[in-house]
Amino acid sequence: MKLAMLARNPTLYSHRRLKEAAEERGHTLDIINTLRCYMNIASRRPEVYYNGEKLPLYDAVIPRIGASVTFYGLAVLRQFEMMGVYPLNESVGIGRSRDKLRSMQLLARDGIGLPVTTFAHDPKQTEEVIRLAGGAPVVVKLLEGTQGIGVVLADTERSAKSVIEAFRGADVNIMVQEFIKEAGGTDIRALVVGGKVVAAMKRTGAEGEFRSNLHRGGSAMSIKISPEERATAIRAAKSMGLNVCGVDMLRSNHGPVAMEVNSSPGLEGVENATGIDIAGKIIEFIEKNAKPNSTRTKGKG
Which pTM does this prediction carry? Predict the structure, then answer.
């Protein structure tokens, strides 16, 4: 098979591993810088150009689109979809997962356990928003943040009000969530590939840090998750419409709660923690499922 990966940094661990896994199985994989693509949007003749040449027709495309280039990355991916190329994750699913508020609304619609989440535009509603989230402490999140950036724990009503009003005064969209104290600075990331949890790890935040992201000095270890946690991860992936994703969950007193669905999960932490060949499982999924013109949304949405 001839595969393409939309990614800006070919040296990242995840991108190198996917290329190695593809080539080990006899495929070719071209890493294409998303921002260097340009498109000819012509009637019935969609084309993508790269470095002055028209790209060939690939069997499948693996989108590894950075959060900072989501808008343009999704436009390029939609163009591939309209050319009939099979996408590992469809543009619509990635778009849903990148919009934190929309993803929470979709998860709530499908009855998936969530922390109490509130959202308001008017700073005058600050006290009511804090009250709806269960009162301080609360977690205040930027809707556009990734890897723990733009996530603040406000311990008291006063600090929560100050943080929310500061963000809103800067015209930044935020949501406010209840703080799951019993999680103790740990979370679970479950890797879902093709509707199955193929690996899971527990991440623990650095000393004094409530965020457990590995990018922020957290540590990870392999973990056996419960049937309820497994079902939550699979349902969350289905809600977003993603074939491959990382589902972040907390263990609360009322069962697992989903925090985020990541459409481009890093492979280094989970492969090192579990010893499982995630990249190989992703390529195997593409082998079994890649068919031309099989995008469910046909580049719409």
Answer: 0.87
Q: Which of 44-53, 71-80, 134-143 has the lowest mean pLDDT?
A: 134-143
> Is residue 10 included in any domain, yes or no?
yes
Residue 113 identity (one-letter amino acid): G
* CA gap 22, 18 in Å, rounded: 6
Rounded to whole angstroms, the Cα distance separating 74 from 63 reads 9
Contact by Cβ (8 Å): 144, 175: no
In terms of domains, do 106 and 227 share one? yes
Nearest Cα to 50, choosing from 58, 186, 259? 58
In this structure, are 214 and 144 located in the same domain?
Answer: no
Report yes or no: 146 and 70 within 8 Å, Cβ to Cβ: no
Name the β-bridge partners of 249.
188, 258
Q: Which of 63-67, 143-147, 151-155 has the highest mean pLDDT?
A: 63-67
Domain assignment present for 194: yes
